[in-house]
Every structure is written in C-alpha cells, then in structure tokens.
C-alpha cells in the first residue's frame, strides 16, 4: 500500500509520415488519472485529462500539428492511486495514411522501455515482498504420499460409513436421525477445538485483515465507553455490535486489548461463533431438506472445513458474527413461513437480521432473501387471504413483523450515521482522510473479469491476475496470506496440504455451478425455497464483490470471505450439485463422499500450525523483532536455523533484521550462518566481520568468524593466520574452558599447516567435551582429529 505517492510516466510514440495527412486526424485519449498531450512538442489542450472526470474520453484533431518525416506524440500521465495508465487511439478518413503507434514509456529515473498492455497482470518483482511463492505443483509433489494415504483412508472410512449408514437408516431410522447431527456437529467441534487450542498461542496477533483497526475500535469502546464515528479510524465506520461484545468480554475477563492474552480470548470467541455458524447451516439445511438428512450433513461438513470460514474464525474481526446472524435469520424466516404461528419466528428473524446489520452493513444484501422467505410462505399452499389490493395477508404480516423488529434493533445506528455524514451507509473509502491510497495495479480492465486459471499454479495474491482467481484463492485457501504483505511473514500453515485443498476444491466449484443451475431451474418451474435462497444469496453477494472490486482500487478487495453471510447459500447450492452429479448411483455418491473426507482432512491439516516448523519460528521471530524484543527474535531465528538453515523465508527475514537493526551483531551472525547454508561464502564473511565491528569482545562471534575463515571451501577467502588469532582470542576470553572454541582453534591451526598443534588442541577439546557431557562435540572433534593426524585440514562442504 502506498499513500500520497505521485507516479508519473511519459508515454511516447515516434513515427514517420511521407506527407502531412490531407484530412483530419482524430486522436482520442483517456488516462488514469490525469494527463497532458503534446504532438511534436506542441501542447493539445483539448486532450488534457482532468482527474475528477478521468474516465471520459477526449478527442481532438491533431492533423495541423503533424509534419512530413519524423513525428512524436508524448502523453504525460500522473497518478496518486496506482501506476499511470493510458488509453489512446487515432483514426483518419484515410486509414492507410496513419502508421500504427508503438508506445514506449519513460518514468522518473528510468530508461525508456516498451509500454506494457494494461490487461496483462503485473509480475511479482524479483526480491520484492511478494516474491518467494512456491508453485502448487511443486507443493503437491512434496506431499503426494501423505495425501494419497489420506485418500485411501478416507475411501475406507466412506465405505464403512456408507454401509453402517444404510444399516442404521433401514433399521433404526429415528436413532440415525439423532446420530447424524451428533456425528457431524460433534466431530467438527472436536476438530475446531483442537485446531484453535493448538494455533492461537502460535499466531502473532498482527495476523488478520485490518486486525489493528479492529483492535483500535475495541480499545476505544473499552477505555472511553463510547461508540466512535466513521472518521475516527480505519475501521470505525463499522457498525458497533461486535466491538461492544468484544469489549464486554474483555472486561469480564479482566483484560485490555493491549494484552496478547486478550487477543487470544477474542480469537477464541470468534472460533466459537464460527462453529455455531456450522450448526446454524446444519439447522437451515435440515429445514430446507427435511426428508434428506444427508444434505445437511454434507453441507455442515463442507462449511466446517471451508478455508475462508476457518481462516476468518481465527482472527479478530466482525465477519463471523455478521454471517452467523444472517444464517440464523434465514432459518427463522423459513420456520416462520412454515409455522401455523409465524409471528414469533418472524420477530426472531427480524432480531437476527437486525443484529447482523448492527455488526456489518454488507449483510444488507441478505435482506431481500430473508424477507422473500417470509413473504412466500409455504409453497403450493394455495392462495392466501388478500389485503390492500391483492397482497398476501399472512406474508405481509410476517414481513412487516421482521422488518419493524430489524429496524428497531439496528435503525438507531444508521440514523446516527446519517445525521453525521448525510447518508446512512459510509465506508472507509468514502472518507477524505483515507482517500489517497492504492494497491497495484490500482485499476481494472475487462480482462480481470474474463480470465481464470492462474490460481492453480500461484494462488497467493492472485487477485493481481484476475477477479475470479482472487475469489477462488480466498474461498478455498488463504490466498492473501492472512493479510501479510510480505511472503516471509505469511502464516505457518501447512502449504502442501493447502495446495491439495486448492486443487480438490475444483470439484466443489463444479458442484456449485451445477447446483446453481439446477436450483434456478427448479425455482422457475416449482417455486422451491431452496431454488432461490441458495443462488439468490450467492448472486447478491457476488454482485457486492464485483461492485467493490470496481469501486476500490485494491487487488485485496477481492476477498471471498466478504461474502461469508452467504455461506448457507453456498452449502445449499453445493449439496444440490452433489445430488445432480451423483444421481442414484451409489458408486458416485461414495466417490464424492471420499473426496469430501479427503478435502476436509486436507483443509483441517492445512490450518494446523506445527510448533516445530521453521516457518512458525520465522514468523514469531519477525513479530518479536517488530515488538522490539531482540533476544526473543534471535532465539526464534536460531531455532529455525537449527531445523532448516536453507528455509527460504528465513534468509529474507534475517536480511530484513540486519537492515532494520544494523548495529545488533546477533542478527548479522545468524544471517551469516544462513548465507553459509546457501553457499554464499563471501557475503557470509562480510556479515561476520560486520558483526564484530560493534562487539569485539564477544567470544562466540570471534569463534564463528575464525571457523569460517579456516574452513571456507573458497580458496581466496581462506585466511588461516587470522583465523588462528581470532580463535585464540575467543579461547582466552572463555579461559580455555569452551570445547567448541578449542575445536575451532584446532581447525585454524590445521588450515595454517600446523598439524602437530592442531592434534594437541583437538585432543584437549575432546577431553573438555567429555567432562561436560557434550557428546556431539566429542564425535565431531574425533572425526576432525583423524584428518589432522593424516596431515589434512577440514573444509566445509558446499551446499
């Protein structure tokens, strides 16, 4: 993200003309976001692009400015909201008289280069913060044995479950109806509990989309006891319910949001809301499909392992509460439509809808579906009594009850916003204080909505490639790295399993498309609730995502979980697609069940943080350093080095640590160890020398440089005499009591050709190591001792 940064570019086209055109030459221009045009060094004021009306094309006749021979068109484009972009064309009554323009660009401080077509996705620059993505095919190859084993196990489990289910369904129908919800909801609850208990202590609090803004809101409510206005902070435009509940929960626990424990409590609270949403989806599907209990089970399982749902439930955000409110409102509306006493459930639906609107105003998109369910009532029930010119009396009463209740619950908030800002809905993109920001590319072309597929190779930040790639990546995985703008700081998920999840999700995407078509047809033919509840919810929230992707200049605006309130609709559509794809075939049902179990297992595995994984230690080290805890950061980086010194994000993290803390020798020393593991010997020597600059009395730093100078496999870097001096100094500082330093001195003496002294020193190192019960040093120095006795020195192996 960039703020207040003006970027300018000159688009230049040079061409030759045999003669001046006889007729007019119309040049049309549009630019992102302001532009001035010159033709042969003469300005064309009619083509100046105003930033307040930049999408309108300008046209002018430039024939009088053209001449025989060499000509040049130059268009200067400046922009604060993204890379400068230009649309230009020219035409003449005699097309053959005009050559094709070949544009080149000249930016500040850069050499001219060919212009890049705006519809081509921007590449990730080498060495940038977004560099370091591992393609999915590579990740899949690294875990194929594990996921094939899971596939076999899931197949067996599906077969056993299918046979047991048929047995129970035929003989114990009522018991099976009670057992199925217990199995699905109980099993998912156990998995979620295990995930959250394991993950919450290991994920730095900064993770989560706009986490700092959400925490700021909670802090203000808790500390000042008031509700903020939209212009008081990045997330202050949000309705207040979630933040009030979060502040009350922290007060109850005696915590403030500044404490890490408080963030863990809030994340646990969202985890509970997320699982309750799984239960609500199960409830809604049982109401929609009362004779087909398997659909509720499949839908709830899908939701419980849906990456977008799992991800959001891990973080401090209002999304899970808003989505839960919508699903409960849908279920109560359906219950009211089918009940002989509908007013109670209708009022309940209004309360749930009002609470969701008091949590996030995008849930307004679900209101037509909730009210439509209340209006329609039981299909095929015959004509109702009529009031007021033909309206169904029962439906009108249900809708009125729910709408008034919802207005009473949340209306005060929107009236308050209206009073202060002149409109009831205000977003952070509306406020001048937050207007000057953008994220590459900062604009969209039609191609962003017409292409798809890059997500199956490089899913992270695939919103750069297209709208649909970004949507797929954030629905079926953590495509935006939990808001981390630096790949080295991405969450320590199990990426191999996430790769499996991304690819297997193509099955549910196909099922979703098939189910949407089937339900839409059923609604047209029969008016089934499921026929428009599922597709209708998805269509409304998809429209919202499309609108916002055009409204806000940000690739990160394409987030599937912004449509989390449509989660129940997703489940309805997918299970209907499943039904259509499987038909009456037990084999196809068994295959889809196996795929579902494999997919659930891979998704849950993907989101299980391993404490011993190097990425876990890297992100904890980055977070500790960001908080100013140098010692904790060094410990984490050191632990990651011990496990996997060649882990790519580790090198990036240590390089950044050296840049931000250049006078901290520990980070240079650790970075040098990482460079050695990558075979970057010269850079490692430079870092070890720099580490000693501010810590000449640190024996471990002296020892490490001595070891490198004595054993480096590059001849011109080896400095045996200096290594002997440094190692001897380290031994003196530790009173000759550290066997590791004595071992380094022996290696340096051997490199200098002083083998007799090397043997004697190595023997002393072995003796001390035995006294201190350090068996690893004993073994290592014994191996080196044999080299010295044979008149050879030790060289570190090349990686």
Which structural class matches the secondary elements?
Answer: alpha+beta
Distance between the termini: 37 Å
Strand content: 5-15%
How would you characterize the largest beta sheet?
6 strands, antiparallel
Widest β-sheet, arrangement of strands: 5-4-7-2-9-10
Helix content: 55-70%
Total strand count, please? 13
Task: Record the SSE blueprint.
Layout: E1 2-3, E2 7-17, E3 26-32, E4 34-39, E5 42-43, E6 58-61, E7 69-79, E8 85-91, E9 103-107, E10 113-114, H1 136-142, H2 144-171, H3 173-199, H4 211-224, H5 241-253, H6 260-288, H7 293-305, H8 307-313, H9 319-338, H10 343-357, H11 367-376, E11 386-387, E12 391-392, H12 393-421, E13 437-438, H13 467-475, H14 495-526, H15 529-551, H16 567-582, H17 586-606, H18 614-626, H19 630-643, H20 648-660, H21 665-677, H22 681-693, H23 699-711, H24 720-733, H25 739-751, H26 755-771, H27 775-789
Antiparallel strand pairs: 1-13, 2-7, 2-9, 3-6, 3-8, 4-5, 4-7, 9-10, 11-12
Helix pairs in contact: 1-14, 2-3, 2-17, 3-6, 3-7, 4-5, 5-6, 6-7, 6-8, 6-9, 6-16, 7-16, 7-17, 9-10, 9-11, 10-12, 11-12, 14-15, 14-16, 14-17, 15-16, 16-17, 18-19, 18-20, 19-21, 20-21, 21-22, 22-23, 23-24, 23-25, 24-25, 25-26, 25-27, 26-27
């Amino acid at each position: 993200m960039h703020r207040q940064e003006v970027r300018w570019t000159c688009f230049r086209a040079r061409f030759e003309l045999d003669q001046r055109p006889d007729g007019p030459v119309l040049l049309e221009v549009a630019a992102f976001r302001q532009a001035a045009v010159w033709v042969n060094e003469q300005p064309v004021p009619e083509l100046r692009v105003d930033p307040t009306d930049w999408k309108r094309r300008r046209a002018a006749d430039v024939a009088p400015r053209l001449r025989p021979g060499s000509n040049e068109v130059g268009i200067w484009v400046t922009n604060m909201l993204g890379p400068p972009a230009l649309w230009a064309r020219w035409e003449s009554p005699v097309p053959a008289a005009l050559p094709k323009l070949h544009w080149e660009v000249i930016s500040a401080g850069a050499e001219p280069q060919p212009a890049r077509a705006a519809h081509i996705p921007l590449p990730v620059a080498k060495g940038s913060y977004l560099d370091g993505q591992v393609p999915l095919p590579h990740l899949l190859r690294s875990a194929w044995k594990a996921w094939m084993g899971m596939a076999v196990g899931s197949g067996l489990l599906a077969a056993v479950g299918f046979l047991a289910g048929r047995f129970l369904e035929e003989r114990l129908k009522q018991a099976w109806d009670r057992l199925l919800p217990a199995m699905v909801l109980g099993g998912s609850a156990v998995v979620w509990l295990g995930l959250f208990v394991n993950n919450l202590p290991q994920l730095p609090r900064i993770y989560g989309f706009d986490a700092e803004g959400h925490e700021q809101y909670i802090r203000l409510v808790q500390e000042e006891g008031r509700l903020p206005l939209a212009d008081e902070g990045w997330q202050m435009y949000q309705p207040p319910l979630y933040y009030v509940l979060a502040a009350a929960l922290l007060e109850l626990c005696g915590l403030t949001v500044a404490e890490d424990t408080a963030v863990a409590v809030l994340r646990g609270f969202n985890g509970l809301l997320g699982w309750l949403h799984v239960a609500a989806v199960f409830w809604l599907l049982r109401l929609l499909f009362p004779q087909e209990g398997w659909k509720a089970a499949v839908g709830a399982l899908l939701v419980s392992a849906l990456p977008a749902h799992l991800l959001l439930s891990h973080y401090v955000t209002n999304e899970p509460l808003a989505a839960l409110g919508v699903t409960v409102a849908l279920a109560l509306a359906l219950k009211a439509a089918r009940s002989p006493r509908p007013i109670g459930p209708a009022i309940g639906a209004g309360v749930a809808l009002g609470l969701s609107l008091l949590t996030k105003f995008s849930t307004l998109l679900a209101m037509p579906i909730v009210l439509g369910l209340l209006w329609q009532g039981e299909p095929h029930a015959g004509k109702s009594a009529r009031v007021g010119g033909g309206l169904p009396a029962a439906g009108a009463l249900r809708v009125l009850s729910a709408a008034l209740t919802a207005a009473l619950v949340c209306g005060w908030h929107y009236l308050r916003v209206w009073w202060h800002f002149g409109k009831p809905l205000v977003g952070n993109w509306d406020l001048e204080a937050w207007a000057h920001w953008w994220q590459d590319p900062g604009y969209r072309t039609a191609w962003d909505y017409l292409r798809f597929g890059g997500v199956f190779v490089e899913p992270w930040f695939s919103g750069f490639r297209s709208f649909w790639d970004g949507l797929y990546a954030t629905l079926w995985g953590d495509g935006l790295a939990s808001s981390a703008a630096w790949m080295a700081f991405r969450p320590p998920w199990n990426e191999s399993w996430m790769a499996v999840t991304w690819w297997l999700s193509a099955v549910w995407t196909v099922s979703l498309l098939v189910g949407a078509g089937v339900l839409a047809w059923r609604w047209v033919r029969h008016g089934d609730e499921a026929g428009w509840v599922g597709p209708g919810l998805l269509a409304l929230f998809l429209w919202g995502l499309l609108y916002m992707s055009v409204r806000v200049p940000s690739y990160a605006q394409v987030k599937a979980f912004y449509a989390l309130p449509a989660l129940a609709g997703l489940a309805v559509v997918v299970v209907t697609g499943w039904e259509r794809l499987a038909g009456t075939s037990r084999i196809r049902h068994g295959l889809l069940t196996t795929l579902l179990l494999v997919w659930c297992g891979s998704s849950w595995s993907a989101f299980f943080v391993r404490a011993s994984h190097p990425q876990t230690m890297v992100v904890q080290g980055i977070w500790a350093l960001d908080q100013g805890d140098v010692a904790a950061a060094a410990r984490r980086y050191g632990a990651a080095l011990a496990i996997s010194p060649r882990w790519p994000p580790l090198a990036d993290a240590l390089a950044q640590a050296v840049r931000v803390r250049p006078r901290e020798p520990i980070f240079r020393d650790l970075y040098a160890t990482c460079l050695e593991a990558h075979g970057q010997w010269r850079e490692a020597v430079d870092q070890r020398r720099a580490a000693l600059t501010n810590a000449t009395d640190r024996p471990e730093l002296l020892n490490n440089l001595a070891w490198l100078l004595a054993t480096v496999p590059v001849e011109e870097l080896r400095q045996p005499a200096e290594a002997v001096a440094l190692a001897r100094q380290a031994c003196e500082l530790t009173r000759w009591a550290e066997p590791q330093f004595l071992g380094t001195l022996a290696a340096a003496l051997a490199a200098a050709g002083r083998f007799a002294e090397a043997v004697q020193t190595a023997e002393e190192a072995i003796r001390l190591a035995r006294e201190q019960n350090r068996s690893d040093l004993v073994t290592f120095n014994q191996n080196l001792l044999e080299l010295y006795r044979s008149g050879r020195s030790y060289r570190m192996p090349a990686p």
